[in-house]
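Quick one before lunch.
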Amino acid sequence: MEKDVFCSIIAGDIPSTRLQEDNSFVAIKDIHPKAQHHYLIIPKKHIESIDDVENSDRDLMGDMVLFAQQCAKTLNLEGYKLLVNVGEKGGQEVPHIHLHLLGGEFYR
Ligand code: AMP
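Model of the adenosine monophosphate complex:
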C-alpha cells in the first residue's frame, strides 16, 4: 500500500505541528486552516475513510471522539465543529480517516 501523507506524518517523515498524541491518535494543525483553530484528529491505524470502518473499529472510533474532546479542552474551546469528509466525492483529499476540529473564528 502506498503511504499517504498522514502515514508519513505519523512516522515522522513529514513535519507537522502536533497538538497532542497518544498511542492511537495524533492531532496536528491543518496546513490550510479554515478557522482560527483547525486541527486534524488522525488515528495511527490506517483506515481509508468512514466508509471502510469495520465492526472491529468500534472502540477506536469512540476513542477518536474522546480524543477530539480532549483536544478541544486543551484549546479551551467553548464550542467547536467536528467534520468528516467521506470519499473523493464527499470532499476527502487525504485517504486516511480523520476528523477536522474547528473552533474560534471561521475563515471565508
Ligand atoms: P480532507 O479534505 O477531509 O481529506 O482534509 C485533508 C486536510 O489535510 C486538508 O484540510 C489539508 O489542508 C490538510 N493537509 C494536507 N496535507 C497536510 C500536511 N502535510 N499537514 C497538515 N495538514 C495537511
